[in-house]
Amino acid sequence: MIEIVSQGAHAGAARVVLFDFDGTLSLIRAGWMDVMVPMMVDLLIETGSSESAEELRDLVLDTVGRTTGKETIYQMMELGEHIRRRGKAPLDPLVYKKMYLDRLWIHIEDRINDLQSGAATPEQYLVPGSRALLETFKDRGYKMYLASGTDHDAVVEEAKLLDIYHYFAGVYGALDDLTSFSKGLLIKKIIESAEFRGEEFLGFGDGYVEIEEVKKVGGIAVGVASHEPECLTIDDWKRNRLLGVGADFIVPNYLELDELMGALFQHGHAVQI
């Protein structure tokens, strides 16, 4: 089901397509919030806060929701600020990041190993319809970029394991130097190269950041609000947040490719909710 949010919006001027990675194409890290959120809640409980676990969980969900798509370190920086507000001295954000990544690795290690050994196929860990979507944009001559808040080396490795690395003119992930990469900086760099204008951007993402950045420059944004890991239905929590930052379209996956391309480029008909 394709939800048309911005009536009359279309990507007819698009020449470059920016994709987020986790939750937009890749499902290798599906369930990451079930790792990050409890960790953050536990650390906030350790401050001795008088807030209930449920209140702290709501706080963390809001924090994570607002920063999904940004480099992981930013989520850890916000965690540190919440700890400081509760009267405790936080650790370095990199310490919290390592703590999270260690826990996440336990969650995804078998998936990585299965992909490396061939026990699992790339399609098992792609949002349904992803490859057909990428092939369509490739065949139409669009330049595609992949940008993720996950660490750069991990994005490169996982994109190669999913056999989608070759579709992109550039693959970008988080670096320790926060001034070196962000999705906003990437878009600005592409625009300043004089190769593309802002309105020539089409973005796909499941988080605030990529939708916001594409809309800032006048592009068209598709919010991917998948209920993971099946990605067959809409996740209302994701949908509401993506709508809040200006998504023009909402999809759970790319299985209705003809309808999606028709909605984006105004050929054919998309289902309207």
Plain-language structure description:
With 273 residues, this protein is α/β, with parallel strands linked by helices. It has 2 domains: 3-27 and 126-265, 3-Layer(aba) Sandwich (Rossmann fold); 33-117, no CATH class. The chain contains 10 helices and 7 strands. It has helices at 33-45, 53-67, 72-85, 93-117, 130-139, 152-161, 183-192, 208-216, 236-244, 257-265, and strands at 3-4, 16-19, 143-151, 170-174, 201-205, 220-224, 249-251. A 7-stranded mixed β-sheet has the order 1-7-6-5-2-3-4. The longest helix has 25 residues, at 93-117. The N and C termini lie close together (8 Å). The model is unreliable at 268-273 (pLDDT under 50).
Blueprint of the fold:
Layout: E1 3-4, E2 16-19, H1 33-45, H2 53-67, H3 72-85, H4 93-117, H5 130-139, E3 143-151, H6 152-161, E4 170-174, H7 183-192, E5 201-205, H8 208-216, E6 220-224, H9 236-244, E7 249-251, H10 257-265
Helix pairs in contact: 1-2, 2-3, 3-4
